[in-house]
Write a structure and sequence with these properties.
single chain; 82% helix
Length: 253
């Protein structure tokens, strides 16, 4: 047990160093903050001079806040989470670091724990910055971070699978874009009824829905069951695929 923890800790420190050395991962991780500042500038005060009654103004402000915070979650998980892992593993494969780790008897669990921990640290830091950039109120901060961590797990696991499937960082970029678009689907559910029906089944659809319910104060077991079940299903499938693919790569090496 202690040996496994030491391996995981060593891997985590290596991943932290690699993160700060890779400009792609750094820039992509900071992009959600820039997007939230842009969105707040563009739509943050869109209803301020619309001549609405106080009740209408309060409703409009709540809807804007739901969109902003839900969008912040999707962008952060999609960019800071998935891209960080995909590029990180692809770089290790490109430099044959991952093969060396496999030959050194590093298990899939060690890699999974180290990569997940790094991604969660980056995601929480970026999410916190996005929250304030979006003009979030402190009463939602704890719920927002908790949902961000929960929603990050499916994308992290899928990213690990895509990272293992990548030959190099160029391939990682090709795989990363569809995953980013998948994470962003809930952001556009207001634009189309079909997208709204599909978004709940996406990796970030559950947390987007739950964030809106939390702001509305309408979270109930029945309403939350579906988003949570979909999120759990993505986590289970992602974990199984990662374990299978990692084992296959270990045999190939």
């Amino acid at each position: 047990m202690n040996a496994s923890l030491r391996k995981t800790g060593a891997l985590f420190m290596k991943d932290v160093a690699d993160f700060f050395k890779n400009p792609t991962m750094l820039v992509v991780s900071l992009m959600p903050i820039a997007f939230m500042l842009l969105y707040r500038f563009m739509i943050g005060d869109a209803t301020a001079d619309a001549g609405l009654t106080p009740e209408q103004q309060a409703f409009a402000d709540k809807e804007v806040l739901k969109f902003m915070l839900g969008t912040a979650l999707c962008l952060t998980v999609g960019m800071a989470g998935s891209m960080t892992i995909i590029y990180g593993i692809a770089e290790e494969k490109e430099k044959h670091t991952l093969r060396t780790l496999m030959l050194a008897n590093v298990t899939a669990g060690n890699v999974l724990a180290a990569k997940t921990l790094l991604a969660l640290v980056v995601i929480v830091a970026v999410e916190a910055a996005c929250f304030f950039a979006a003009g979030g109120q402190m009463q939602w901060f704890g719920t927002y971070l908790a949902l961000g961590v929960l929603g990050a797990l499916p994308l992290i696991l899928v990213s690990l699978v895509l990272g293992l499937a990548s030959r190099d960082q160029t391939t990682a970029g090709v795989f990363g874009v569809p995953l980013l678009l998948l994470a962003m689907i809930p952001m556009f559910e207001l634009a189309n009824e079909t997208i709204a029906k599909i978004s709940v089944y996406t990796p970030c659809g559950g947390i987007y829905k739950l964030m809106g319910m939390a702001i509305d104060g309408s979270v109930t077991f029945d309403e939350a069951l579906m988003p949570l079940a979909v999120t759990a299903a993505w986590i289970v499938v992602g974990a199984i695929l990662f374990a299978v693919l990692y084992k296959k790569l270990t045999r190939d090496n």
